């Protein structure tokens, strides 16, 4: 996923179609006296609809489409003929897309399933033709209803990627390397900070053809909640994860302090993130000697399950998958 192509926030102006006017018409046929009213109803205006598409990963296709308008309904005709319904506009969005009112910030709904359709703005109702208004005392009604106008609103679409596991760590903790080893994802990897500029998703294969989704987000640094580094722009992408996998490299000066800093930044952003299941993975352990390993194990935090891994030698990778899979299933059972 190229950084320039990953868009997780767009603001668009949407307008639904107006309803068609009802027809004011009287039946006029040869040899038929006083045919009476036969004006048909107007067609409803087109809706603006959001539809989930599991094949989409970004809102890029909506970035340059600021104004979206559905089609108006057609007017009714004589002979009780109803006008054509205005064509709906269907906007396909990735799963995990939230729609918000741009003025109030109110969350309207979210798209979480492939093929799910929700009406964002309803089209105007078509007006009734004069056929509806005939009665014993009004046999030639001289009026019909106009169609209802369409609705218009500014809407924010915000994407929160859906994944089972979110990788959390400082830049250069080995998050992208781990994702590239356990899945077919190919994130950019280099030995400088902030190589990862956008979230990356990978499907991790497990035993018996099972799998789970892992999300790698750009590294967090101390002060991210105040906007340092890449700030907290991408933290919304781990709000949906059931498990947070904290990654701290084995060559860190103070593993405990680094882990606590990450926790603090998450707490400032959204305290509910700390209620999620957590695992601590110590990466790059292939660079340690046996004595250094023994010393490192004494420094590990006591309040979180931890595991030593190496993406290079594959050490601990299968055990990590086992632990993640067990946590995913225990979370599902709790729900």
TrEMBL record:
Mg(2+) binds at residues 176, 196. One of its GO terms (biological process) is ribosome biogenesis. Transmembrane segments: none annotated. Keywords: Cytoplasm, GTP-binding, Hydrolase, Magnesium, Metal-binding, Nucleotide-binding. GTP binds at residues 169-176, 194-198, 216-219, 283-286, 310-312. GO terms for cellular component: cytoplasm. This is GTPase Obg. It comes from Dyadobacter flavalbus. The lineage of its organism: Bacteria, Pseudomonadati, Bacteroidota, Cytophagia, Cytophagales.
């Amino acid at each position: 996923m190229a950084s320039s192509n990953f868009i997780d926030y767009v603001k668009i102006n949407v307008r639904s179609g107006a309803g068609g006017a009802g027809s004011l018409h009287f039946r006029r046929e040869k040899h038929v006296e006083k045919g009476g009213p036969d004006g048909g109803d107007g067609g409803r205006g087109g809706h603006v609809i959001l539809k989930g598409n599991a094949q989409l990963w970004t809102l890029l296709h909506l970035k340059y489409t600021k104004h979206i308008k559905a089609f108006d309904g057609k007017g009714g005709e004589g002979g009780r003929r109803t006008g054509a319904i205005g064509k709906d506009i269907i906007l396909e969005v990735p799963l995990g897309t939230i729609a918000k009112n741009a003025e109030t910030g109110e969350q309207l709904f979210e798209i979480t399933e492939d093929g799910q359709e929700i009406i964002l703005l309803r089209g105007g109702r078509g007006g009734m033709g004069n056929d509806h208004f005939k009665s014993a005392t009004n046999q030639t009604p001289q009026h019909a209803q106009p169609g209802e106008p369409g609705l218009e609103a500014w809407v924010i679409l915000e994407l929160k990627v859906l994944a089972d596991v979110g990788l959390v760590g400082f830049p250069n903790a080995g998050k992208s390397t781990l994702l590239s080893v356990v899945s077919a994802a190919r994130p950019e990897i280099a030995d400088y900070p902030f190589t990862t500029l956008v979230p990356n998703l990978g499907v991790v294969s497990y035993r018996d053809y099972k799998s789970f989704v892992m999300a790698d987000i750009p590294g967090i640094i101390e002060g991210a909640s105040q906007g340092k580094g890449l700030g907290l722009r991408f933290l919304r992408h781990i709000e949906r994860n059931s498990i947070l996998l904290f990654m701290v490299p084995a060559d860190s000066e103070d593993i405990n302090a680094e882990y606590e800093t990450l926790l603090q930044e998450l707490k400032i952003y959204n305290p509910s993130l700390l209620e999620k299941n957590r695992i601590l993975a110590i990466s790059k352990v292939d660079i340690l000697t046996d004595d250094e390993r023994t010393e490192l194990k004494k420094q590990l935090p006591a309040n979180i399950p931890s595991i030593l891994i190496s993406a290079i030698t594959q050490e601990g990778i299968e055990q990590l998958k086992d632990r993640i899979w067990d946590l995913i299933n225990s979370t599902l059972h709790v729900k």
